[in-house]
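BUG-467 | component: ligand-complex export | severity: low

The export step for glutamic acid jobs runs without errors, but we want the raw record kept on the ticket for reference. Input record follows.
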Amino acid sequence: MTVVTRFAPSPTGHLHIGGARTALFSWLYARRQGGRFILRVEDTDRERSTDEYVQAILEGMAWLGLEHDEGPYYQTQRFDRYGEVITRMLAEGTAYHCYCSRERLETLRADQMAAKEKPRYDGLCRDGRASIPEGVNPVVRFRNPADGQVVFEDLVRGSIAFENAELDDLIIARSDGTPTYNFTVVVDDADMGVTHVIRGDDHINNTPRQINLLRALGVTPPAYAHVPMILGADGQRLSKRHGAVSVLQYRDEGYLPEALLNYLVRLGWSHGDQEIFSRQEMIDLFDLTSVHRAPSTFNPDKLLWLNQHYLKTADPAYVASHLSPHLKRLGLDPAGGVDLVGVVVALRERSKTLVEMAEAAQFFFTDHLAYDEKAVAKHLGLEGRRSLQAMTEALATLSEWTAPTLHDVVERIAAEGGWKMGQVAQPLRVAISGTAVSPPIDQTLALLGREKSLSRIAAALRHSDLG
Ligand code: GLU
Protein backbone atom coordinates (compact mmCIF):
# COMPACT_ATOMS: atom_id res chain seq x y z
CA MET A 1 0.00 0.00 0.00
CA THR A 2 1.30 3.43 -0.89
CA VAL A 3 0.92 5.80 2.01
CA VAL A 4 -0.97 8.98 1.16
CA THR A 5 -1.16 11.82 3.67
CA ARG A 6 -2.55 15.29 3.36
CA PHE A 7 -2.35 18.68 4.96
CA ALA A 8 -5.73 20.35 4.76
CA PRO A 9 -5.57 23.91 6.08
CA SER A 10 -8.56 26.23 6.14
CA PRO A 11 -7.35 29.58 4.79
CA THR A 12 -9.02 31.56 7.54
CA GLY A 13 -5.73 32.66 9.07
CA HIS A 14 -1.99 32.44 8.71
CA LEU A 15 0.04 29.24 8.92
CA HIS A 16 0.87 29.06 12.61
CA ILE A 17 3.08 26.81 14.71
CA GLY A 18 0.33 24.23 15.26
CA GLY A 19 -0.63 24.00 11.59
CA ALA A 20 2.98 23.89 10.50
CA ARG A 21 3.66 21.06 12.93
CA THR A 22 0.69 19.09 11.55
CA ALA A 23 1.95 19.74 8.03
CA LEU A 24 5.46 18.61 8.98
CA PHE A 25 4.28 15.37 10.60
CA SER A 26 2.09 14.56 7.59
CA TRP A 27 4.90 15.36 5.18
CA LEU A 28 7.47 13.39 7.19
CA TYR A 29 5.25 10.37 7.43
CA ALA A 30 4.72 10.33 3.67
CA ARG A 31 8.44 10.81 3.01
CA ARG A 32 9.43 8.16 5.57
CA GLN A 33 7.04 5.64 4.06
CA GLY A 34 7.92 6.48 0.46
CA GLY A 35 4.37 7.76 0.00
CA ARG A 36 2.68 10.86 -1.36
CA PHE A 37 1.81 14.11 0.36
CA ILE A 38 -1.23 16.11 -0.73
CA LEU A 39 -1.96 19.76 -0.07
CA ARG A 40 -5.65 20.57 0.08
CA VAL A 41 -7.05 24.00 0.77
CA GLU A 42 -10.34 23.76 2.68
CA ASP A 43 -11.79 27.05 1.57
CA THR A 44 -15.52 26.33 1.72
CA ASP A 45 -16.06 28.88 4.48
CA ARG A 46 -16.21 31.73 2.02
CA GLU A 47 -16.86 34.38 4.63
CA ARG A 48 -13.66 33.70 6.53
CA SER A 49 -11.35 32.36 3.81
CA THR A 50 -9.22 34.85 1.93
CA ASP A 51 -6.90 34.60 -1.01
CA GLU A 52 -4.26 36.37 1.02
CA TYR A 53 -4.28 33.57 3.59
CA VAL A 54 -4.14 30.96 0.82
CA GLN A 55 -1.04 32.66 -0.57
CA ALA A 56 0.52 32.97 2.89
CA ILE A 57 -0.03 29.26 3.56
CA LEU A 58 1.48 28.26 0.20
CA GLU A 59 4.41 30.59 0.77
CA GLY A 60 4.96 29.28 4.30
CA MET A 61 4.91 25.67 3.11
CA ALA A 62 7.35 26.45 0.30
CA TRP A 63 9.68 28.32 2.66
CA LEU A 64 9.70 25.36 5.04
CA GLY A 65 10.43 23.09 2.09
CA LEU A 66 7.37 20.92 2.74
CA GLU A 67 6.79 20.27 -0.91
CA HIS A 68 3.58 18.50 -1.93
CA ASP A 69 3.29 15.76 -4.52
CA GLU A 70 -0.29 16.59 -5.40
CA GLY A 71 -2.41 19.68 -5.30
CA PRO A 72 -3.02 22.21 -4.08
CA TYR A 73 -6.62 21.14 -4.41
CA TYR A 74 -9.27 23.70 -3.58
CA GLN A 75 -12.56 22.53 -2.14
CA THR A 76 -14.42 25.43 -3.75
CA GLN A 77 -13.47 23.93 -7.11
CA ARG A 78 -15.01 20.60 -6.22
CA PHE A 79 -18.63 21.56 -5.60
CA ASP A 80 -19.87 19.55 -8.60
CA ARG A 81 -18.28 16.46 -7.17
CA TYR A 82 -19.82 17.05 -3.73
CA GLY A 83 -23.21 17.54 -5.40
CA GLU A 84 -22.79 14.25 -7.22
CA VAL A 85 -22.09 12.36 -4.00
CA ILE A 86 -25.05 13.97 -2.24
CA THR A 87 -27.35 12.93 -5.07
CA ARG A 88 -26.01 9.40 -4.85
CA MET A 89 -26.48 9.23 -1.08
CA LEU A 90 -30.05 10.51 -1.37
CA ALA A 91 -30.76 7.87 -4.00
CA GLU A 92 -29.21 5.14 -1.88
CA GLY A 93 -31.00 6.29 1.24
CA THR A 94 -27.86 6.98 3.26
CA ALA A 95 -28.95 10.61 3.34
CA TYR A 96 -32.35 12.29 3.47
CA HIS A 97 -34.00 15.67 3.06
CA CYS A 98 -34.85 17.46 6.23
CA TYR A 99 -37.51 20.18 6.13
CA CYS A 100 -37.43 21.13 9.78
CA SER A 101 -37.48 24.86 10.25
CA ARG A 102 -34.91 26.71 12.26
CA GLU A 103 -37.59 27.60 14.79
CA ARG A 104 -38.52 23.97 15.26
CA LEU A 105 -34.90 22.97 15.76
CA GLU A 106 -34.37 25.79 18.22
CA THR A 107 -37.40 24.84 20.27
CA LEU A 108 -36.31 21.20 20.19
CA ARG A 109 -32.90 22.18 21.43
CA ALA A 110 -34.26 24.38 24.20
CA ASP A 111 -36.60 21.61 25.37
CA GLN A 112 -33.79 19.05 25.40
CA MET A 113 -31.55 21.37 27.33
CA ALA A 114 -34.31 22.06 29.85
CA ALA A 115 -34.76 18.31 30.28
CA LYS A 116 -30.98 18.03 30.77
CA GLU A 117 -30.67 15.90 27.64
CA LYS A 118 -27.89 16.20 25.10
CA PRO A 119 -29.27 18.40 22.28
CA ARG A 120 -29.62 16.42 19.06
CA TYR A 121 -31.84 16.15 16.05
CA ASP A 122 -34.91 14.03 16.87
CA GLY A 123 -35.16 12.41 13.44
CA LEU A 124 -38.56 13.79 12.44
CA CYS A 125 -37.66 13.73 8.74
CA ARG A 126 -35.51 10.63 8.95
CA ASP A 127 -38.18 8.21 7.93
CA GLY A 128 -40.11 10.58 5.71
CA ARG A 129 -42.59 12.92 7.33
CA ALA A 130 -46.28 12.75 6.65
CA SER A 131 -46.49 16.14 5.02
CA ILE A 132 -43.75 18.09 3.39
CA PRO A 133 -43.97 21.81 4.18
CA GLU A 134 -44.46 23.98 1.12
CA GLY A 135 -41.81 26.31 -0.20
CA VAL A 136 -39.07 25.03 2.08
CA ASN A 137 -35.64 24.29 0.66
CA PRO A 138 -34.57 21.25 2.65
CA VAL A 139 -31.14 20.55 4.05
CA VAL A 140 -29.63 17.11 3.48
CA ARG A 141 -28.84 15.01 6.53
CA PHE A 142 -26.70 11.93 6.81
CA ARG A 143 -28.50 8.87 8.12
CA ASN A 144 -26.12 8.04 10.94
CA PRO A 145 -26.37 4.47 12.26
CA ALA A 146 -28.81 4.56 15.17
CA ASP A 147 -26.98 2.21 17.48
CA GLY A 148 -23.70 0.42 18.01
CA GLN A 149 -20.31 2.02 18.35
CA VAL A 150 -17.71 3.57 16.14
CA VAL A 151 -14.32 2.32 17.24
CA PHE A 152 -11.03 3.30 15.73
CA GLU A 153 -7.41 2.65 16.54
CA ASP A 154 -5.81 6.06 16.77
CA LEU A 155 -2.13 5.76 15.88
CA VAL A 156 -1.22 8.15 18.67
CA ARG A 157 -3.88 7.63 21.30
CA GLY A 158 -4.82 4.00 20.87
CA SER A 159 -8.38 2.71 20.72
CA ILE A 160 -11.15 5.31 20.80
CA ALA A 161 -14.85 4.49 20.87
CA PHE A 162 -17.96 6.62 20.36
CA GLU A 163 -21.60 5.58 20.78
CA ASN A 164 -23.60 6.08 17.61
CA ALA A 165 -26.51 7.15 19.78
CA GLU A 166 -24.42 10.18 20.72
CA LEU A 167 -23.93 11.24 17.12
CA ASP A 168 -26.44 13.42 15.34
CA ASP A 169 -27.76 13.01 11.84
CA LEU A 170 -25.24 15.45 10.49
CA ILE A 171 -26.28 18.08 7.93
CA ILE A 172 -24.16 17.39 4.86
CA ALA A 173 -25.69 20.02 2.57
CA ARG A 174 -27.26 23.31 3.56
CA SER A 175 -30.59 24.47 2.16
CA ASP A 176 -28.74 26.39 -0.56
CA GLY A 177 -27.07 23.14 -1.61
CA THR A 178 -23.57 23.96 -0.33
CA PRO A 179 -21.81 21.04 1.31
CA THR A 180 -20.68 21.17 4.93
CA TYR A 181 -17.28 20.69 6.45
CA ASN A 182 -17.26 17.06 7.64
CA PHE A 183 -18.77 15.95 4.37
CA THR A 184 -16.26 17.66 2.08
CA VAL A 185 -13.37 16.25 4.14
CA VAL A 186 -14.78 12.75 3.73
CA VAL A 187 -15.37 13.00 -0.01
CA ASP A 188 -11.90 14.42 -0.51
CA ASP A 189 -10.12 11.90 1.70
CA ALA A 190 -11.92 9.13 -0.20
CA ASP A 191 -11.37 10.55 -3.70
CA MET A 192 -7.74 11.39 -3.02
CA GLY A 193 -6.98 7.95 -1.63
CA VAL A 194 -5.76 9.30 1.71
CA THR A 195 -4.48 6.41 3.83
CA HIS A 196 -3.37 8.34 6.93
CA VAL A 197 -5.10 11.38 8.36
CA ILE A 198 -2.70 13.18 10.69
CA ARG A 199 -4.25 16.23 12.33
CA GLY A 200 -4.76 18.12 15.56
CA ASP A 201 -6.74 16.42 18.30
CA ASP A 202 -9.34 19.18 18.15
CA HIS A 203 -10.72 17.07 15.29
CA ILE A 204 -11.24 13.91 17.34
CA ASN A 205 -14.96 14.47 17.69
CA ASN A 206 -15.31 14.75 13.91
CA THR A 207 -13.64 11.41 13.35
CA PRO A 208 -16.54 9.04 14.23
CA ARG A 209 -18.88 11.09 12.01
CA GLN A 210 -16.39 10.97 9.18
CA ILE A 211 -15.88 7.22 9.61
CA ASN A 212 -19.64 6.61 9.46
CA LEU A 213 -19.90 8.75 6.33
CA LEU A 214 -17.03 6.90 4.68
CA ARG A 215 -18.60 3.55 5.46
CA ALA A 216 -21.89 4.75 4.01
CA LEU A 217 -19.98 5.56 0.83
CA GLY A 218 -18.48 2.08 0.82
CA VAL A 219 -14.99 3.37 1.50
CA THR A 220 -12.60 1.85 4.04
CA PRO A 221 -11.69 4.65 6.43
CA PRO A 222 -8.06 5.76 6.56
CA ALA A 223 -5.92 5.40 9.67
CA TYR A 224 -6.10 8.38 12.00
CA ALA A 225 -3.41 9.97 14.11
CA HIS A 226 -4.52 12.83 16.33
CA VAL A 227 -1.66 14.94 17.50
CA PRO A 228 -1.96 16.59 20.91
CA MET A 229 -2.15 20.31 21.14
CA ILE A 230 0.59 22.79 21.86
CA LEU A 231 0.48 24.84 25.02
CA GLY A 232 2.15 28.04 26.11
CA ALA A 233 4.43 28.07 29.17
CA ASP A 234 1.39 28.97 31.31
CA GLY A 235 -0.42 25.78 30.30
CA GLN A 236 -2.94 27.65 28.14
CA ARG A 237 -3.56 26.88 24.49
CA LEU A 238 -0.77 28.40 22.40
CA SER A 239 -1.41 31.89 21.06
CA LYS A 240 0.38 35.10 20.17
CA ARG A 241 0.58 35.94 23.86
CA HIS A 242 3.19 33.22 24.19
CA GLY A 243 5.36 34.75 21.52
CA ALA A 244 4.25 32.30 18.84
CA VAL A 245 3.88 33.92 15.46
CA SER A 246 3.14 32.78 11.93
CA VAL A 247 5.66 30.84 9.87
CA LEU A 248 6.22 33.80 7.56
CA GLN A 249 6.81 36.06 10.51
CA TYR A 250 9.54 33.72 11.74
CA ARG A 251 11.06 33.99 8.29
CA ASP A 252 10.86 37.79 8.48
CA GLU A 253 12.35 37.80 11.98
CA GLY A 254 15.42 36.03 10.66
CA TYR A 255 14.91 32.35 11.35
CA LEU A 256 16.20 29.65 9.04
CA PRO A 257 13.61 27.09 7.91
CA GLU A 258 15.87 24.31 9.28
CA ALA A 259 15.63 25.82 12.77
CA LEU A 260 11.87 26.04 12.66
CA LEU A 261 11.51 22.52 11.25
CA ASN A 262 13.85 21.12 13.88
CA TYR A 263 11.91 22.97 16.55
CA LEU A 264 8.57 21.74 15.23
CA VAL A 265 9.58 18.11 14.96
CA ARG A 266 10.41 18.04 18.65
CA LEU A 267 7.03 19.50 19.58
CA GLY A 268 5.37 16.25 20.46
CA TRP A 269 7.82 13.80 18.95
CA SER A 270 11.15 12.52 20.18
CA HIS A 271 13.91 10.11 19.35
CA GLY A 272 15.83 9.29 22.52
CA ASP A 273 17.22 12.56 23.83
CA GLN A 274 18.42 13.80 20.47
CA GLU A 275 17.67 17.49 19.86
CA ILE A 276 19.29 18.27 16.52
CA PHE A 277 17.78 16.67 13.43
CA SER A 278 18.69 17.40 9.86
CA ARG A 279 15.86 17.19 7.36
CA GLN A 280 17.09 13.80 6.21
CA GLU A 281 17.40 12.50 9.76
CA MET A 282 13.85 13.54 10.49
CA ILE A 283 12.70 11.61 7.45
CA ASP A 284 14.74 8.57 8.41
CA LEU A 285 13.60 8.52 12.03
CA PHE A 286 10.06 9.88 12.12
CA ASP A 287 7.35 7.53 13.24
CA LEU A 288 3.83 8.09 14.49
CA THR A 289 4.34 5.57 17.27
CA SER A 290 6.81 7.97 18.91
CA VAL A 291 4.42 10.91 18.85
CA HIS A 292 3.60 11.82 22.44
CA ARG A 293 0.14 11.58 23.88
CA ALA A 294 0.59 14.53 26.20
CA PRO A 295 0.46 18.13 24.98
CA SER A 296 3.78 19.83 24.28
CA THR A 297 4.89 23.22 25.48
CA PHE A 298 6.09 25.99 23.24
CA ASN A 299 9.47 27.44 24.16
CA PRO A 300 10.67 30.42 22.08
CA ASP A 301 14.14 30.35 23.70
CA LYS A 302 14.76 26.87 22.39
CA LEU A 303 13.73 27.95 18.91
CA LEU A 304 16.20 30.82 19.09
CA TRP A 305 18.91 28.47 20.32
CA LEU A 306 18.27 26.16 17.36
CA ASN A 307 18.39 29.10 15.01
CA GLN A 308 21.79 30.07 16.34
CA HIS A 309 22.93 26.50 15.97
CA TYR A 310 21.92 26.39 12.30
CA LEU A 311 23.35 29.82 11.53
CA LYS A 312 26.69 28.59 12.90
CA THR A 313 26.74 25.14 11.36
CA ALA A 314 24.83 25.30 8.08
CA ASP A 315 26.71 25.72 4.80
CA PRO A 316 27.58 29.45 4.77
CA ALA A 317 26.57 29.73 1.11
CA TYR A 318 23.13 28.49 2.11
CA VAL A 319 22.95 30.93 5.03
CA ALA A 320 24.03 33.69 2.63
CA SER A 321 21.10 32.92 0.34
CA HIS A 322 18.76 33.45 3.30
CA LEU A 323 20.64 36.55 4.45
CA SER A 324 20.19 38.32 1.10
CA PRO A 325 16.51 39.23 1.52
CA HIS A 326 17.25 40.71 4.93
CA LEU A 327 19.99 42.90 3.49
CA LYS A 328 17.63 44.02 0.76
CA ARG A 329 15.07 44.97 3.37
CA LEU A 330 17.67 47.28 4.86
CA GLY A 331 18.05 48.87 1.44
CA LEU A 332 21.39 47.20 0.79
CA ASP A 333 22.58 45.40 -2.31
CA PRO A 334 23.81 41.91 -1.34
CA ALA A 335 25.79 41.81 -4.57
CA GLY A 336 27.42 45.08 -3.60
CA GLY A 337 30.98 43.94 -3.98
CA VAL A 338 31.72 42.11 -0.74
CA ASP A 339 31.80 38.33 -0.62
CA LEU A 340 28.52 37.46 1.05
CA VAL A 341 29.63 33.98 2.08
CA GLY A 342 32.68 35.51 3.77
CA VAL A 343 30.41 37.95 5.58
CA VAL A 344 28.37 35.03 6.91
CA VAL A 345 31.50 33.26 8.13
CA ALA A 346 32.67 36.44 9.85
CA LEU A 347 29.33 37.05 11.58
CA ARG A 348 27.81 33.66 12.21
CA GLU A 349 29.29 33.15 15.67
CA ARG A 350 27.77 36.38 16.91
CA SER A 351 24.26 36.42 15.42
CA LYS A 352 21.14 34.80 16.80
CA THR A 353 19.00 35.67 13.80
CA LEU A 354 19.48 36.69 10.19
CA VAL A 355 18.04 40.07 11.08
CA GLU A 356 20.84 40.58 13.60
CA MET A 357 23.34 39.31 11.07
CA ALA A 358 22.08 41.72 8.41
CA GLU A 359 22.27 44.63 10.83
CA ALA A 360 25.80 43.70 11.84
CA ALA A 361 26.73 43.33 8.15
CA GLN A 362 25.40 46.73 7.08
CA PHE A 363 28.76 48.46 7.11
CA PHE A 364 30.11 46.04 4.50
CA PHE A 365 27.48 47.14 2.01
CA THR A 366 27.31 50.88 2.38
CA ASP A 367 29.67 53.65 1.40
CA HIS A 368 28.05 56.04 3.84
CA LEU A 369 29.12 54.91 7.26
CA ALA A 370 27.12 56.13 10.19
CA TYR A 371 29.80 56.85 12.81
CA ASP A 372 29.16 56.10 16.42
CA GLU A 373 30.47 59.45 17.69
CA LYS A 374 31.25 58.07 21.13
CA ALA A 375 33.50 55.47 19.53
CA VAL A 376 35.05 58.17 17.35
CA ALA A 377 35.77 60.32 20.40
CA LYS A 378 37.22 57.38 22.28
CA HIS A 379 39.37 55.79 19.59
CA LEU A 380 40.14 58.45 17.01
CA GLY A 381 41.91 60.98 19.18
CA LEU A 382 45.44 62.09 18.38
CA GLU A 383 47.00 58.74 19.20
CA GLY A 384 44.34 56.78 17.37
CA ARG A 385 44.79 58.89 14.27
CA ARG A 386 48.54 58.35 14.42
CA SER A 387 48.09 54.61 14.45
CA LEU A 388 45.64 54.90 11.55
CA GLN A 389 48.22 56.91 9.58
CA ALA A 390 50.78 54.23 10.18
CA MET A 391 48.31 51.56 9.12
CA THR A 392 47.48 53.45 5.94
CA GLU A 393 51.04 53.31 4.75
CA ALA A 394 51.49 49.67 5.69
CA LEU A 395 48.22 48.64 4.07
CA ALA A 396 48.87 50.54 0.87
CA THR A 397 52.00 48.51 0.23
CA LEU A 398 50.95 45.14 1.61
CA SER A 399 51.70 42.63 -1.12
CA GLU A 400 49.11 40.00 -0.28
CA TRP A 401 45.69 41.07 1.08
CA THR A 402 44.55 38.15 3.25
CA ALA A 403 43.38 37.78 6.85
CA PRO A 404 46.70 36.28 8.03
CA THR A 405 48.86 38.92 6.32
CA LEU A 406 46.55 41.65 7.64
CA HIS A 407 46.80 40.18 11.11
CA ASP A 408 50.60 40.37 10.87
CA VAL A 409 50.47 44.00 9.76
CA VAL A 410 48.35 45.01 12.74
CA GLU A 411 50.77 43.24 15.05
CA ARG A 412 53.80 44.80 13.40
CA ILE A 413 52.41 48.36 13.46
CA ALA A 414 51.48 47.94 17.12
CA ALA A 415 54.99 46.74 17.96
CA GLU A 416 56.71 49.47 15.95
CA GLY A 417 54.59 52.28 17.42
CA GLY A 418 54.75 50.96 20.98
CA TRP A 419 50.96 50.50 20.99
CA LYS A 420 48.90 47.70 22.46
CA MET A 421 47.01 45.65 19.85
CA GLY A 422 43.73 47.31 20.84
CA GLN A 423 45.21 50.75 20.27
CA VAL A 424 45.68 49.84 16.64
CA ALA A 425 42.73 47.54 16.13
CA GLN A 426 40.07 49.78 17.69
CA PRO A 427 40.75 52.94 15.65
CA LEU A 428 40.86 50.71 12.60
CA ARG A 429 37.55 49.12 13.54
CA VAL A 430 35.87 52.51 13.98
CA ALA A 431 37.28 53.66 10.65
CA ILE A 432 36.12 50.56 8.82
CA SER A 433 32.74 49.87 10.44
CA GLY A 434 31.82 53.18 12.08
CA THR A 435 31.57 51.47 15.47
CA ALA A 436 33.81 49.80 18.01
CA VAL A 437 32.17 46.42 17.36
CA SER A 438 32.88 44.30 14.32
CA PRO A 439 34.07 40.82 13.50
CA PRO A 440 37.85 40.26 13.89
CA ILE A 441 39.50 43.18 12.17
CA ASP A 442 41.80 41.12 9.95
CA GLN A 443 38.83 39.18 8.60
CA THR A 444 36.86 42.39 8.15
CA LEU A 445 39.65 44.10 6.21
CA ALA A 446 40.19 41.02 4.08
CA LEU A 447 36.53 40.96 3.10
CA LEU A 448 36.27 44.65 2.41
CA GLY A 449 39.31 44.72 0.14
CA ARG A 450 42.19 47.15 -0.07
CA GLU A 451 40.55 49.95 -1.96
CA LYS A 452 37.49 50.30 0.25
CA SER A 453 39.53 49.83 3.42
CA LEU A 454 41.93 52.62 2.49
CA SER A 455 39.20 55.00 1.45
CA ARG A 456 37.34 54.35 4.72
CA ILE A 457 40.45 55.02 6.75
CA ALA A 458 40.98 58.26 4.84
CA ALA A 459 37.35 59.26 5.41
CA ALA A 460 37.60 58.47 9.13
CA LEU A 461 40.74 60.58 9.43
CA ARG A 462 38.95 63.49 7.77
CA HIS A 463 35.87 62.97 9.93
CA SER A 464 37.79 62.83 13.21
CA ASP A 465 39.98 65.76 12.23
CA LEU A 466 36.91 67.92 11.71
CA GLY A 467 35.33 66.67 14.92
N1 GLU B 1 -9.33 22.18 7.57
C1 GLU B 1 -9.13 21.68 8.90
C2 GLU B 1 -8.41 22.69 9.75
O1 GLU B 1 -7.78 23.59 9.22
C3 GLU B 1 -8.35 20.39 8.94
C4 GLU B 1 -9.17 19.24 8.54
C5 GLU B 1 -8.51 17.90 8.66
O2 GLU B 1 -7.29 17.82 8.79
O3 GLU B 1 -9.22 16.94 8.58
O4 GLU B 1 -8.50 22.62 10.96
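Assignee comment: Attached the raw record above. The pocket of glutamic acid is lined by residues 8-10, 42, 185, 199, 203 (CB under 6 Å).
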